[in-house]
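Module 6 notes. Inverse folding takes a fixed backbone as the condition and produces residue identities as the prediction. Think of it as a translation problem where the source language is geometry and the target language is the twenty amino acids. Below is one complete input and output pair. Work through it position by position during the lab.
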């Protein structure tokens, strides 16, 4: 679900855009962040039971960005003379825990310098990975977990504190030294809707009219999808507060011009449909209606001073792409 309150934007639009569903939220740069911990530390002198009871070396990685996870890989590097003593767990901000290394002390190979990736051809410490890991470059051996799968984190929010728990289940002959770990994300494509509101004097005869009381204004809300994915079908709701110094005009927005309804719609690449009768509603409430369905006022013909909010719900799944798709909604109001 994505919700963006357009009142955060420094324009006069007091609108709420709702974009419901799986494809929204993260900024495109989020997946380019570097989320890594390089604070070394010794882990060891545990027995299996101590390890299970939580006697871990702990390292955390903070993800400051907000996005949903489509895929995550974990880079992990530790020095160890008998590396399969290592038990490694990763816990997400949501609390999901996955074992990457189970501590089965099955082989004496030195060091881990791995990238855990569910898509890797081989499991850690099997096949071609039954060799010492070199320590450069970082995370050079691409392997699958021998415990759970990283896909368990898919669909979760990446933002927050990730925790690594590391222990040596077979001591005290040898300990390990944690060197570094890094999270690599692919974000779920998301719609990010950017609204702008503008106004212009209504002057169809080009008389050079001024924005003074008695004349009409055309207000236009333009919404651009600057994100990487489409908005969910029918999910866009815009609730705009009419400026207090104007009165909504419930008539033909452009008189003799080609429009016929009180609201004009246009789009570029957005792939939406717009039907005035079903996709525009009104409110005479003092405070912002909670959603489009709560806009239940029927305005009278002509100028109606009772209208306080105008509500829009264009239909379809707003597309993403290059150039960024956009749509515009215009209505008319008289300056009091
Ligand atoms: Ca060894
Ligand atoms: Ca992966
Ligand atoms: Ca050991
Ligand atoms: Ca007209």
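Target side of the pair, the amino acids:
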């Amino acid at each position: 679900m994505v919700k963006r309150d357009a009142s955060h934007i420094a324009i006069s639009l007091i609108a709420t855009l709702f974009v419901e569903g799986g494809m929204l939220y993260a900024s495109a740069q989020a997946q380019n962040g570097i989320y890594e911990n390089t604070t070394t530390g010794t882990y060891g002198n545990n027995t299996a039971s101590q390890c299970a009871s939580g006697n871990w070396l702990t390292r955390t990685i903070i993800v400051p960005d907000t996005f949903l996870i489509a895929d995550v890989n974990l880079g992990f590097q530790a020095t160890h003379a008998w590396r399969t003593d290592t038990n490694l767990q990763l816990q997400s901000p949501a609390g999901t825990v996955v074992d990457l290394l189970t501590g089965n002390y099955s082989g004496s190979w030195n060091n881990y310098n791995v990238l855990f990736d569910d898509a890797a051809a081989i499991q850690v410490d099997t096949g071609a990975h039954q060799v010492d890991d070199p320590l450069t470059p970082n995370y050079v051996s691409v392997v699958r977990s021998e415990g759970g799968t990283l896909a368990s984190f898919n669909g979760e929010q990446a933002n927050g504190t990730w925790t690594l728990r590391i222990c040596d289940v077979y001591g005290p002959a040898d300990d390990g030294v944690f060197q570094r770990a890094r999270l690599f994300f692919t974000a779920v494509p998301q719609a990010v809707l950017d609204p702008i509101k503008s106004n212009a004097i209504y002057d169809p005869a080009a008389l050079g009219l001024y924005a003074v009381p008695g004349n009409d204004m055309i207000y236009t809300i333009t919404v651009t999808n600057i994100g990487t994915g489409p908005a969910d079908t029918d999910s866009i709701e815009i609730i705009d507060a009419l400026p207090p110094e104007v009165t909504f005009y419930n008539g033909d927005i452009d008189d003799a011009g080609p429009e016929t309804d009180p609201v004009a719609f246009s789009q570029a690449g957005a792939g939406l449909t717009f039907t005035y009768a079903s996709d525009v509603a009104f409110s005479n409430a003092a405070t912002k209606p909670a959603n489009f369905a709560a806009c239940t006022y029927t305005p009278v013909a002509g100028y109606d001073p009772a209208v306080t909010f105008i509500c829009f719900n264009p239909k379809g799944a707003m597309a993403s792409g290059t150039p960024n798709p956009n749509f515009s909604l215009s209505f008319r109001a008289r300056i009091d």
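Reference fact for the lab report: The pocket of calcium ion (ligand 3) is lined by residues 44, 82, 85, 168, 170-171, 173-174 (CB under 6 Å).
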